């Protein structure tokens, strides 16, 4: 018999399969069909856009790891996810240099600055998107009509704009997104078009059905918390439903709100960024409902047709507070005082006291 | 398939995890005996509380079953000779916890038949409540599920706390372990006698045996011995770790919660393990003390896994030589793999609280060798696993920053009973429960 080598280790001695890499890798898998569809839909430009943001994000993380002498963290796939997600939220004809700058800003200010994976307060892809919205307002609201016959052989004219120059405006290619059509022209898009993605829009937001199916892959494999997309979509549906009931002629139907724009992509892939969302079971519901609510409010009353990006960033900002307020009640601890108890305590306090306060000056006697 | 059925039996607690069970190798193996080890080590402290006071001198000859130590005060129990032989001495010997402690060492008389000749039979039906409690302490009984808390202290409920239900713990939720399962199957009659005695001691009106639904044969065996109007009932609970934790079993069976930091008797319940009660039903009528217990020896590193009736004091080295163990064994765990601890030496004896000896080769302990630790990604899996509904994610974050006082003040650290579910599920491989143990011991020292 070989000499026995005893090792000391504290319990538990079993470990569930599954790791951070496993979760992140599967998120990438879930995003790939959406990428494939968008490349089919918008052609070479979409492919170049996805590659540009992904490579920039990976390069940025690598650069800062080297500069900060930190361990190489590329193997956890999180930089790749940020890159893909950022590309999916941009218009297909977005100039590549602007996309690269946005990816760099999102990655460096949104993630590396906070300490890398696990520490970012906001979704880094949306930080990059918010930067693009502010810095390149023209390019980010120029939308391309899908299914152009030459899309696999030619890139869109604005894609290869020289760095730090303004892209040429080519009206022949541009169109309006369903949300913009509703907002500025009062037109509704067919539900089947929204489901199948036969519309104009950001690279990866067009087909609500495909995004839903890819998101459900993550939910079924329990890689994201099902409550989160449910709460975001539910919050948007309920808020839109209230307005629709108030004035069906003016406000869009909740189904239109649910299927148009980036809501589906945001609910399944961006609001669900675990690091920047609450962890407590109740907190997740509140956070999701808040995002759904804010999205619809921005869409209906804001200057921009789409609101999911700011809604998620605001939700990210609120999540530490939400977590703080929704700490779970441990086993055997008394539940927090109910509202009824609090009210009765208040009534007790407000009751006029029987004994009158002692007359002034009496105490000294 | 068992997972499918487990949704049907609804009784359980919220959260928890489903580790692989690994019980196939030993669940159908009847309890067997092994030869007696040539040298037995009986630590004076095998239980929670004060060490026992030895009654024997070196070179004294003892008979199997004879008392060799008496309880030192109330929170202590007696010890009995596991073999007929000669006392070698009372000396410092290694223990599973690490530091050496005093133990009675007995050299086994090889020529002896090792029949128990000690003890006078008595009529247990005439024993009063106090008589039963006294007899239990004299029999040296402690919680055999692993905690080793003196059983008589559990039965001796402080005045003003009427007990309505005795909960009998037959869950055995730890992977690999099947000792309790075999006891329920093979020692059904003594188990039921033990339950009736404990109910009398507690003046409890009813008893509920909670059994996980992966042991339906044990449920059937128990039900076959009970009449429909019996105050003892058997209830299946969902197979889930840590269902065998007493507070969670109470929650599953009775929907009551033990107050934080309190004891089950405060809500009218006492929980005992099936091994303990079966020993009680066996020992009390004969006026004997506990000298052996059923131990599951299993794991990928064991050649002949099974359930063995092992004399208390048998060194692990002897036990493992008898069942055969692989040379690449590297983790030897006393208890189950979720809560049991590894031992540093094979000269540690089997004590009253050892329900299993699990031998794992290096690779079996992790899904991936050298799993890298990542920063917490706040996935929330630990919150969904924690059976006492803590926030291990936040606790872990504070532990890294060593804010141990804050962990207790705001995040209920002391309600953690270290089941390890959080570490088991963490995809970032963060040693959460290990952090919490450190935090708790630091907090304990601060209080002193």
Describe the fold and architecture.
The complex is a heterodimer of chains A (365) and B (448). With 365 residues, chain A is mainly alpha-helical. Chain A contains 14 helices and 2 strands. Chain A has helices spanning 20-42, 44-67, 78-88, 96-110, 124-135, 178-185, 191-196, 208-220, 227-246, 254-259, 263-270, 281-301, 308-325, 339-350; strands spanning 143-144, 174-175. In chain A, strands 1-2 form a two-stranded antiparallel ribbon. In chain A, helix 2 packs antiparallel against helix 3 and helix 9 runs parallel beside helix 12 (281-301). Mean pLDDT of chain A is 87; it is low at 361-365. With 448 residues, chain B is of the alpha/beta class. Chain B is 28% helix and 19% strand. Chain B contains 15 helices and 17 strands. Chain B has helices at 2-6, 24-27, 129-138, 151-155, 179-186, 188-202, 216-224, 246-254, 274-283, 316-323, 381-385, 392-400, 404-411, 421-425, 432-447; strands at 32-33, 39-43, 53-54, 61-62, 67-70, 79-80, 85-93, 101-108, 165-170, 206-212, 232-237, 269-273, 292-298, 306-311, 329-334, 341-342, 356-361. Chain B has a 6-stranded mixed sheet, with helices on both faces. The longest helix of chain B has 16 residues, at 432-447. The model of chain B has no long low-confidence stretch (mean pLDDT 90). At the A-B interface, helix 1 of A face helix 8, strand 15, strand 16, helix 14 and helix 15 of B.
